[in-house]
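cache lookup: miss for this entity combination. No prior model stored, computing from scratch. Input as submitted by user K.M.:
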Amino acid sequence: MDLSYTDEEKAFREEVRAFLAEKLPKEVSDKVRAGVSLGKEGHDDWHATLNEKGWLAFSWPREFGGAEWNAVQRHIFEEECALAYAPRIVPFGLSMLGPVLQKFGSKAQQDYFLPRILNGAHWWCQGYSEPGAGSDLASLKTRAVRDGDHYVVNGQKTWTTLGQYANWIFCLVRTDPEAKQQEGISFLLIDMETPGIEVRPIVLLDGTPEVNEVFFDNVRVPVENLVGEENKGWTYAKYLLTHERTNIAGVGFSQAGLDAVKRIARIESAGGRPLIENPHFAARLAQIEIDLMAMATTNMRIVSQASAGQAPGVESSMLKVKGTIIRQEINDLTRRAVGPYAMPFASEAIEGDNDPIGPDYAGPVAAQYFNNRKLSIFGGSNEIQRGIIAKVKMGG
Amino acid sequence: MDFNLTEERRMLQETLRRYLTDRYTTEMRNGIIDSEAGFSAEIWTELAELGVIGALFSEGDGGFGGAGFDIATVFGELGRAGVVEPFLDTAVLGGGLVAALGDDGQKALLGDVIAGGLHLALAHGEPASRYDLSRVETSMRGDGGDVVLNGRKAVVINAEAAGYLIVSARESGGFFDLDGISLFLVPVGTKGVTRRGYPMLAGGRAAEVVLDEVRLPGAARLGEAGKGFAPLMDAVAAANVALAAETVGAMESAVELTREYLMTRKQFGRPIGTFQALQHRFADLLIELEQARSAVINAAGHLEARDRDRQIAAARNLIARAGRLVAEEAIQMHGGIAMTQEYELAHIAKRIVMADHRFGDADYHLERFIALSAA
């Protein structure tokens, strides 16, 4: 046992810190800290900055233009980015589709699509969930029927995150309705400009237009946009989901969140004393910090196994459950820390360039609390994760 | 013991439930929330005609109720329907203080309040006061026969619609002293009163109020000089009963929506409510909901009792804990659909959780309970 980082790892952390200090504009980190939307341009700019350094596709192999970092390097990078309030890397092209194309795509697909993910020409979104297929993803109904050199796609996808910015969507579609559920699914790449596609925003409970419904009405997709083999899409989908679950513990986000709530609790007062000295508040804060300290080590144990070449399995489900519980607890405590000033609805339209209502940190916290209820729902709900853990560990 | 509502209260409950079920749909309410006023004048008038406001005042003040169980009955129904109209502010807080302290001239306003023609708002909390009711920095000085107010009031709910603000100001003593707080009935058009309005996350509107050399005649005083704290406590106690009942009403709706969803939503070929893991969690919500209903009864039944404040602290602590569990579990068991603004549960969950931020969250009421139990 040795809980310390190696000299190389420490040097790498310093390099990441120096890069962030130099290249992350303050107006961008202020927005991330305040929970303000960056817009498409803001994300594109940050991607370009990382791409210039060669760090955008940090987990991709070098042959595809990636940095080929190991799991510990990735962890250090993600932690430093969270603590610096850097924008998150939009995952759909980089950490979801990219690895699938690298493993299962044709040479032509790799040559065409991968560089366009890196240079920002393509913004991808994910066409997985449907109104009737959420946790039970394999029950999806969107149909693709072969017609000469094309598939004709009809159906509906939902919860399409940032689909309003996307010009491409990767979709799970049913190509064989007769086969057993998982066996008749294919993985298609669809240009959002194709006639017959309609994107409708869904407004979330905190007022943000973050997700969408995507409708397909006789959308013609060239057959060369099929990834791998027809009816084998479920295999690729599962491969993608294992990549979606990297950084699933969100340790860096929790540490940044904990720092933020401590800062707020030093400024806020209750009964004439700083809130952070209030015994009940302090106890809650300590409880979360204790959980987080252990989870950071759980995370590192799993990360270093992955670095040693062992694929994380059921442990990533454990990290998802515990990681989201901790993040949501921090959101709850932060909401409570600001007291009555959590009540105003600080939309950008209202605040704009005006003075904030109440202290500047108060505006987004209640909205973030509600928005982050999604953490335990998306990417395989915590109920699904618990099912996986039980199934694997009980040998059922 | 008798845990049944009186005939009059039961009828009021039924009338309100029928009216709100038919009239106050999710779509309508979402339109109201997005509107400039943040509430519907039409709904306000209709509910006033149904007796919602009258039920919150005693006969002596022109109403037909005013007891703890009247408040609990009315607000339980408003909570079930997720009503955003500011009855708590105009009637329980504003109207309650005028009824308790007003001279004949001031009390003449109550007829208009009960009829639905006049709004009021309590401008008491300040930027640094959090939930401490005694912390008042807004100053008052006498000048001849006039009084002059200076200060800032935070998150004053319903300040924009109100005809009068009930403003607390310190006439003597230090920031946290219980003695020395005075109350004033301030017409909103008075020179030096500015209101910066904004919508709230769970619906309705509030404002930051600045009082800059606000000069009033001495007759604007509401109640005795320096003796405002006790009546404020009384009004806030009634408001806490209302908030507790409203939150439990909203919890009932959240649980009911969840039950329907669990029985209709199919995944893996069957309704998700047939999975035992979800059945047990749903059963826990029902257990907590029963506890929360009892907490409202305890608080409402002790509104006039010596043990009032301890009972209210207990109720609001329990309901804050149970409410958070119900809101979060209801969203989780629904999944993504509960995260969308157009689905009823989204608003109901916001009402439940955001009640924490009025007059104290679970920890505040826990500390109150400990202090009052030791006293």
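stored under new cache key. Strands of chain B lie at 120-123, 139-143, 146-157, 164-170, 181-187, 193-199, 205-217, 221-222, 266-267, 270-271.
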